[in-house]
Specification:
about 70% helix, single chain, about 0% strand, globular, mainly alpha, two-stranded antiparallel sheet
Length: about 625
Amino acid sequence: MFAALVVFLLLGYPVAFALAANGLLFFVIAVELAPYAPQEISLSWPLLQALPERVFQVMSNEVLLAVPFFTFMGLILERSGMAEDLLDTIGQLFGTIRGGLAYAVIFVGALLAATTGVVAASVISMGLISLPIMLRYGYDRRLASGVIAASGTLAQIIPPSLVLIVMADQLGRSVGDMYEGAFLPGLILSGLYAGYVFLMTQLYPKSAPGLPVEAIGYREPNGARGVWQLGVLVLFSGLVGYYVMGQTGIKAGADFVILTICVSTVVALICAVMHRFLGPARVALSAAIVVALGAAYLALHRSYPSYEVTAIVLEMVAAAALYALIVGLAERIGGLTLMSKMATQVTFVMVPPLLLIFLVLGTIFIGVATPTEGGAMGALGSIILAAFKRRLDRNPARFNWTLLQQATEATAKLSAFVIFILLGARVFSLTFYGVNGHLWVEHLMTSLPGGQIGFLVVVNALVFVLAFFLDYFELAFIIIPLLGPVADKLGIDLIWFGVMLAVNMQTSFMHPPFGFALFFLRSVAPKVPYLDRVTGRQMAPVTTGQIYMGAIPFVVIQLIMVAIVIFYPQIVMHYKSAAPVVDPAAVQRSLDNLMVPGLDGPGGPAGLPPIDLGAPPRIQ
């Protein structure tokens, strides 16, 4: 069956139809061979009547409904110009630092990954926006190509990733747990990319030069860049976020981090808005707001201590007003600028998408919303943000009916692509399970030497090799249902197993010569010499060989990340830290002291023997 599937794919047939045709072909062969293997083949012609039901089961799966929501959210934000604004602002922030544009690409790639969830959208948008700028300032073509392609693949591992939704569905686990487990590995992988860029700038300084001084904007009237003011704002907002979340019942875990960042971004945005729009009366208005909100908070907290959300809002606005008051007093009394142009620009550009991302993830992590509900909220939030962007910039291209229509069509195409592959995989699995193929795979994997370690080594090697030919959706629908039960039988946590395979499957986008991210970048990279529109210089094209050579170091980094996940499982397993802790002894004491009306005591009416509840159950 696998050999025939490879032949179908090499002939150029679409994956979904190749899977379905392969399954039906071998269904016929298996039914004809059933009399010769009565205990091995459980297929018969009436079993085909189960296919329509399997189709409707796929289409009624509410977990997969999160796929179009998150896709739509990302496409709206990406096409409304968010990526371009982010790259320009973060590039200016790094300034003359060597590799600054590469760091900006990685940072923005991680942000786009958390909004689009689609590798193609991330790579194409980053290639169109950042590659000409990097070439203009003399970046090595291999490094620039590799950074852009690798940063785009972060969309697969950083939540809300589409592949993590599919992975959780195939493994039968919670999407929220999968998101929480993948959050830290995604950040570590981004840090490894940045570490590689730093190493290259130290070994080969000319491969990633900093921006020239004349290209740096957002300066103060005295010529200063105003970066330290941004640091002060970030520190203040972070402390307020930590304090506010410390008043709640959430004390640790990824949900605490996500919600702390969410509160901090809101505080920073309110600070920037108050500084820009309060005008000359900033000091008096800020003081009045601080006093009024402080009094309201005290009254609310004393009268209605359970109104937690309202108290959090009052604390955030009061803290922002206090910061605006400090900024105003520093300007009037000491002539010190605490809110620079750079700080304001970075806040206005970064906070809206960050707020949407962390608000969606935060509600999923703490269990307020399911991934489907969080995706719906994110889709609506992206429309609101794009509409505000159009209003503030007075640019109709930021958001219009054509953009909305294009995003909807692209979402429909991707969603149909996912569903059709899943339907084809269901037809394939019907035959594969009917000939006991899953038992063959299970016996093969459990008999490997080395136990869990041997299984993980073989599985990762298998996925790495298959990634040369199949993309991550195909791997998730074909391979994961076969490997998941084996991993569960070996006692491997399936969330950790899924995150590890998701990191490994990233290489399917970066493998020369079939990596999809490399194809996406090739489609937008210059193929012939061209004139730079800013400098007017003749620029050399980017060759396919340079794109391939630039991808190889990042494939190695991704494999290193797989090893880190294997040897340090706690970076994924922290998702269990928020689970409630149950004391069996306390449960038994409560049961022993249980009083039922009409009975004499915990042992029952007088004269009857006490009820033996047995030993308390073991709670894993």
